[in-house]
């Protein structure tokens, strides 16, 4: 057994560990052990798998959905807008409720139920050719989807802060992208299989979406398992509960520093140039490069495929090097180059999409852990809720704008619009670097220096605790 596996998670004694009996003493079930945290990490990664799989069901079925339902591009992009609109407000309150009322365990279970229910309603709407009901389904799905991601991020910080947090965020992103990639590559074959069995048009579409909804149950099972293991670990490891003085109040949000709001701007302006683009990318590759739907789908899913592999690798690299803000600036700059290639050249789109997959992995692995360095742990659910709420406001608005631009102006103007958004993200990232540098450079600190400062802080804390009252 390695030394890391022998070391208690929270510095608890060997005597306390010896009190465990039965399966509780095994490496995977013993919360004092290294391997137990990685069992939790696996479950944590699958928590949002179903949500991300179903989020991009419309993108994977874009051409067939428009044909079967007889809708415009703007109406089609409305499925993404209706997902995002509830999260403009509810995602923030979801994070606040995790911090203040539900706790992360109950919150994850509730939001997983919303994800499953929303996909069922969305599929039912397609089955009866009712676009309005499909919008309602995406709205319900959205209530759970982004708040579930907030719960996942909160779990990650709770279990891995101070250890491998960047890698954990990268691995979570990787599994999320695996869900999206699997969706992009199997929904069309499933549609063809169902269609060949005798079901046609919107009836076929509804059945396919119901089949996709089965994956959402995975999120619910993972939420229940995480709740069990987390409650068990709290009891065994004697994790302290927040006192009334430590719990967050809604008014505390106004005291978040400027760096937190710059982080939100980067988040929204970067992601609006990725997700809406992928949502509309299928026809873009078919029209500009004359790809057939299957090949266009493969190209369109490359960002997800690459990020599924690259995110944990870059997360590990960032854990070892630190300097998160530098990586954010680099990821944004490279993505600008990728969109410029797609907009102004006829270079094979595989080049731009593969590169975008790497740059997206870098940015996501570096960006989200920064919040844990800005706000206290008892406010993290709220902080991540705010980030996702602002992100979804941008996604909802841009989904409408992007669909309208494609309908009226075409894909070249759409790409120019995405380039403008990315330039705003880059300016915000540079401002974050400058503001952080003026305050000591904590957010862009090297991993080695960060570890030295942490050890010094731990020694000071230990001295304070040993002082007589």
Automatic annotation (TrEMBL):
Keyword terms: Lysosome, Membrane, Transmembrane, Transmembrane helix, Transport
Bilayer topology: Multi-pass membrane protein
GO CC annotation, single: lysosomal membrane
Catalyzed reactions per annotation: L-alpha-aminoacyl-L-histidine(out) = L-alpha-aminoacyl-L-histidine(in); L-histidyl-L-alpha-amino acid(out) = L-histidyl-L-alpha-amino acid(in); L-arginyl-L-alpha-amino acid(out) = L-arginyl-L-alpha-amino acid(in); L-alpha-aminoacyl-L-lysine(out) = L-alpha-aminoacyl-L-lysine(in)
Pfam families: MFS_1
PROSITE patterns for the chain: MFS
Compartment annotation: Lysosome membrane
Domain of life: Eukaryota
One function term, GO molecular function aspect: transmembrane transporter activity
Family: Belongs to the major facilitator superfamily.
Subunit structure: Homodimer. Interacts with lysosomal protein GLMP (via lumenal domain); the interaction starts while both proteins are still in the endoplasmic reticulum and is required for stabilization of MFSD1 in lysosomes but has no direct effect on its targeting to lysosomes or transporter activity.
Role according to the record: Lysosomal dipeptide uniporter that selectively exports lysine, arginine or histidine-containing dipeptides with a net positive charge from the lysosome lumen into the cytosol. Could play a role in a specific type of protein O-glycosylation indirectly regulating macrophages migration and tissue invasion. Also essential for liver homeostasis.
UniProt-recorded name of the protein: Lysosomal dipeptide transporter MFSD1
């Amino acid at each position: 057994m390695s030394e890391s596996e022998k070391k208690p998670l929270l510095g608890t004694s060997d005597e306390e560990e010896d009190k465990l009996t039965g399966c509780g003493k095994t490496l995977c079930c013993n919360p004092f052990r290294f391997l137990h945290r990685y069992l939790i990490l696996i479950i944590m990664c699958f928590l949002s798998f179903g949500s991300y799989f179903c989020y991009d069901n419309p993108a994977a079925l874009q051409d067939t959905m428009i044909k079967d339902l007889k809708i415009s591009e703007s109406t089609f992009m409305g499925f993404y807008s209706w997902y995002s609109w509830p999260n403009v407000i509810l995602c923030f309150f979801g994070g606040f409720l995790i911090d203040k009322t539900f706790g992360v365990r109950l919150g994850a279970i509730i939001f997983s139920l919303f994800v499953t229910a929303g996909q069922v309603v969305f599929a039912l709407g397609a089955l009866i050719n009712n676009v309005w009901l499909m919008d309602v389904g995406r709205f319900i799905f959205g209530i759970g989807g982004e708040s579930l991601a907030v719960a996942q991020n909160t779990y990650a910080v709770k279990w891995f802060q101070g250890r491998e947090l960047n890698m954990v965020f990268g691995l979570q992103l990787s599994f999320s992208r695996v869900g999206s990639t699997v969706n992009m590559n199997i929904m069309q074959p499933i549609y063809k299989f169902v269609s060949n069995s005798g079901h046609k048009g919107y009836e076929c579409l509804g059945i396919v979406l119901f089949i996709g909804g089965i994956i959402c149950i995975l999120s619910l099972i993972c939420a229940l398992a995480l709740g069990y293991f987390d409650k068990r670990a709290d009891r065994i490891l004697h994790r302290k509960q927040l006192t009334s003085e430590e719990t967050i109040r809604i008014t505390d949000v106004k005291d978040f520093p400027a760096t937190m709001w710059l982080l939100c701007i980067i988040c929204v302006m970067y992601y609006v140039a990725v997700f809406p683009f992928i949502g509309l990318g299928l026809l873009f590759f078919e029209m500009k490069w004359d790809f057939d739907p299957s090949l266009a789908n493969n190209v369109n899913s490359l960002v997800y495929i690459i990020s599924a592999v690259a995110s944990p690798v870059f997360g590990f690299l960032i854990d070892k090097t630190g300097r998160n803000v530098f990586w954010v600036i680099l990821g944004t700059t490279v993505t600008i180059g990728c969109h410029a290639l797609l907009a102004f050249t006829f270079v094979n789109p595989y080049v731009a999409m593969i590169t975008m997959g790497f740059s997206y992995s870098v940015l996501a692995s570096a960006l989200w852990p920064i919040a844990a360095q800005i706000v206290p742990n008892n406010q993290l659910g709220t902080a991540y809720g705010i980030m996702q709420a602002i992100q979804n406001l941008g996604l909802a608005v841009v989904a409408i704008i992007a669909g309208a631009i494609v309908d009226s102006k075409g894909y070249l103007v759409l790409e120019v619009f995405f380039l403008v958004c990315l330039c705003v993200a880059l300016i915000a990232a540079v401002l974050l670097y400058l503001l952080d540098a003026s305050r000591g450079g904590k957010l862009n600190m090297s991993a080695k220096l960060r570890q030295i400062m942490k050890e010094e802080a731990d020694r000071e804390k230990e001295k304070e605790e040993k002082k007589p009252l």
